Amino acid sequence: MASIRKRERKDGTAIYQVRWLQGGRGGDWETEKFGDETSAEEFKKLVDAHRQQWPTGWVKGKGFVQETVLDGDMPLTEWAHRYIDRLTGIDERTRRDYKRDVDNHISLVQHTQPSGLVVDATIANITANDIQDWVRVEEAGERDPENPEEWLRRPSSPKSIANRHGLLSTIVQAAVEAEPQLRTKNCCTGTRLPRLDDGIEDEMCFLEHDEYARIATEITDSHARDLADWLVGTGMRWGEATALQVRDINLTRNTASVHRAWKRAAPGEPGPSYFLGPPKTKKARRIVALTGSQMEMLRRRMAGKSPEDLIFETQRGHSWRHTNFWRRRWVPAVEAAIAKGLPKRPRIHDLRHTHVAWLIAAKIPLPAIQVRLGHESITTTVDRYGHLVRELDDEITAVVERALVEPAAPGARQLVPVAG
Questions:
Q1: CA 354/CA 291 separation, integer angstroms
Q2: Cβ contacts of residue 177 below 8 Å, gap of 6+?
Q3: pLDDT at position 288, please?
Q4: Interacting residues of 37 by C-beta distance below 8 A, sequence separation 6+
Q5: pLDDT at residue 413 in the model
Q6: What is the pairing mode between strands 255-258 and 261-264?
Q7: Do residues 40 and 130 share a domain?
Q8: Distance in angstroms (rounded) separating the CA atoms of residues 4 and 43
């Protein structure tokens, strides 16, 4: 006999899954999903009437109704892979990351028909409601039904959901702009996403000057110390700083030009695991102004090197790797500083955040910080660091103070409280 399994959604609605062994005992499990219990009960009766077989004429995920399919329509994941394969201007690691998100996350998108029947998603049939349902699935994760304490799929962070939704939106937009057109509008427009500040797992750590000094004092390797000082003093990304070459430094103008960054090669590709490629975005190509002490350190490190040599290298003259620096230099220094009273446990990338915090404390405008960091949009700078901007606090509090304390002008109406 077929059975019905009810699965609750986060929004309070449910999906009803009809399950049965095809042909009876010894057969493979088959399932069909419905958006309401009545439809599931009716389909269960059909399966039982057909002796645990698919009802004659029934198409899984579609039912008995013949649906109109647009020319060129295809499964959503297949369209997504084709779109990603055609992208230009990205490295193979980024292409591989996009495809992984498609296979592991965007593949969870399903289409719910007006009747409530849940079917496979295609590039043409998905709707705004389907995208909103998918966001809830990503946000909630999935528990193991056999062991509720374990996860089959862990909840995704708000930032991860936003990134995957952005990728999905560009994939759908390609169908809107396709010839022939597969969609008339982008169903991802207007999706309500989780707030980016709802989670704390990726909380940024900002160091005060003396707090960084505590860590720096514990870095006894001069090569590692120079690199740490450079990261916190320029706000460069790890891959940018460790890819700097002698030819990138302008000794007359006291600047460093960001032209390249380290990239990870795809697994199985011939050659080294890392290679030099373009920076993260177009605006990541930038010129960074340097201090006198920074230039002094650069001249010391550049002595005797050729234009193509790396500026920051290990004691043995090799390029730095993040894992090596983290495990052998950064973590021991942080742990030693914590043992002596440091109240924070920063990551290497927090040196970039700390650099911004120092600039904002000195009242440097956010647009200037955007350019220095190489953010593609000022929105990124404001969203990440806008809460640190305090340069108008004194002016604001002064205005409020005058409004509340100064006596009213002669003839002005006074508000008098009623006694009792």
A1: 17
A2: none
A3: 95
A4: 4, 6, 14, 16
A5: 46
A6: unpaired
A7: no
A8: 10
Task: Please state, in angstroms and rounded to a whole number, the distance separating the CA atoms of residues 30 and 52.
Answer: 9
In sequence order, what E strands does 274-340 have?
Answer: 274-277, 286-289
Question: Do the strands 249-250 and 29-34 form a parallel or antiparallel pair, or are they unpaired?
Answer: unpaired
Segment 227-268, tens digit of pLDDT: 999 999 999 999 999 999 999 999 999 999 999 998 877 666
DSSP secondary structure of 357-420: HHHHHTT--HHHHHHHHT-S-HHHHHHHHGGG--TTHHHHHHHHHHHHHSPPPTTPPPP-PPP-
Residue 263 sits in the same domain as residue 156? no
Tell me which residues of the chain have a pLDDT lower than 70.
56-57, 64-71, 196-202, 266-271, 378-380, 383-384, 386-397, 399, 405-420
Taking alpha carbons only, the member of 80, 95, 100 closest to residue 169 is: 80
pTM higher than 0.85 for the full model?
no
Are 34 and 111 in the same domain? no
Q: What is the pLDDT of residue 50?
A: 80
Helices (H), 193-258: 209-218, 222-234, 238-241
Question: For every residue of 78-127, which 3-state class applies, written as one string?
Answer: HHHHHHHHHCCCCCHHHHHHHHHHHHHCHHHCEEECCCCEEEECECCCCC
CA atoms of 265 and 273, how far apart (whole Å) = 5
Is residue 70 included in any domain, yes or no?
Answer: no
Containing 174, the helix (H) or strand (E) segment is helix 158-176
Positive or negative torsion for Cα 348, 351, 352, 357: positive
- Please indicate, yes or no, whether residues 368 and 219 belong to a single structural domain of this protein: yes
Q: What is the pLDDT of residues 57-101, one digit of tens each?
A: 677 877 765 444 456 789 999 999 999 999 987 877 788 899 999
Q: Which domain holds residue 118?
A: 76-176
**Phi and psi at residue 393, in whole multiples of 5°?**
-60, -45
